[in-house]
Amino acid sequence: MPAKTKETPTKGEITRLAVEDAAIELFLEYGYHATSMRQIAKRAGLALGGIYNHFKSKDEIFEGIIIDKHPYRTILPAVLEAEGESAEDFLRNAVKIAMRELGEEPVFIKLMFIEMAEFNGKHGSLMLKEIAPKALPIFEKLVKTRKSLRVSNPALLMRSFFGMMISYYITDIIISKSVIAKLMPKNPMDAYVDIFLHGIIKES
Amino acid sequence: MPAKTKETPTKGEITRLAVEDAAIELFLEYGYHATSMRQIAKRAGLALGGIYNHFKSKDEIFEGIIIDKHPYRTILPAVLEAEGESAEDFLRNAVKIAMRELGEEPVFIKLMFIEMAEFNGKHGSLMLKEIAPKALPIFEKLVKTRKSLRVSNPALLMRSFFGMMISYYITDIIISKSVIAKLMPKNPMDAYVDIFLHGIIKES
DNA sequence: AAAATAAAAACGAACGTTCGTTCATTTTCA
DNA sequence: TGAAAATGAACGAACGTTCGTTTTTATTTT
């Protein structure tokens, strides 16, 4: 019999996950403070008091969520395995992988809004401290080894890369229900990445 | 005697502004739902009930704020007056003007977070509908007349432009208290705009 | 200019509701 | 058979809003 690596989840673990899933849905829809413990309990399918067998407080639910849904869990490791001959290939692949992991609805991006809007960035440093140390070396290596890069500052390159990703999803949310969305190219993300790589100005 | 263009503000107008100013500060710090009417009243320097002589509800305060602080009020008109021989000059100037109007602390950007996080984009369409119709023609003209542009889709160009601005402020907020901020170039916005204009890849 | 007056503004107690959390108890699970 | 999990009533606190009243302001009339 192998050492117990992954037993069948216990009842408590199932409930705990159900609470987190319910809370995510509600937080994304109404925000953190406008979501009540009663709503969470109802959607998770248990009584109000039952939540407190798995979480000490409402805050702890949110913290549990941002830990479980944190990009360093799945997205970052996947992105770090991106490959490519040139810097351009590498970054294109990295974006593709990140998008695949983020999925259609970028839960983490929206959680970031909530965190910034309702917690004033209280958990922000935690979020960043997990990502930056892992990602920065990649961009440092990129700058050093790929001569095809115009940008020589790794931190700036990293900021620009993540900024591009974030701004894509934000503008997507903002324009998704407007006529502007219909004016976008077929693959807006490809076009977006292309601008990041080559800029908007035609080289003379 | 000139037609009455701007009389001295009445008492009510002064109080109304004081309430909005107090509310902005608190909303930016704690978010909308975590800010109470009592906090707003206290900071504005009047009694709880007094607020309701100027606003019908808490929601109406927020709406009053996003109308007063809306970019189409001051930022957009200023940006639309940007000039420049080439598209690059024009866009560089536009960014400079936008930054000057946004100021050090981009209140509108943070209000946008609150709106997205706590109102699920309820006012979003209003925000966009005011900006897009006014800004899009500028980018259309830009694409048509400036042959130096790689990007031919005006809507994409506009989205990319605003996305770049937004992502600059977001990443600034995120990294401002981390070591990454110290790794940035002297003028990060200039470097950021440069990437937007020319991309990160060196043309062969 | 002073007095009168009606509207606007300010006040703070009070209302009904909802909030997050606790608790004693019962049920389910290992 | 003990521990873990689930229950829902209960608690005190805080919420947005209302209300009757008083004070201040702005305008009109002396």
Q: Summarize the helix and strand pattern of chain A as letters.
A: HHHHHHHHH
Largest sheet of chain A: none
Protein structure class of chain A? mainly alpha
Question: What is the count of helical runs of chain A?
Answer: 9
State the assembly state of the protein chains: homodimer
> What sort of overall outline of chain A do the alpha carbons produce when their principal axes are compared?
elongated
CA distance, first residue to last residue of chain A: 68 Å
Rounded mean pLDDT of chain A is 91
Would you count the extended β strands of chain A for me?
Answer: 0
**What fraction, in percent, of the residue positions of chain A are helical?**
55-70%
Strand content of chain A: under 5%
Query: How many structural domains can be distinguished in the coordinates of chain A?
Result: 2
Rg of chain A: 20 Å
Largest interface summary: A-B, 69 and 70 residues
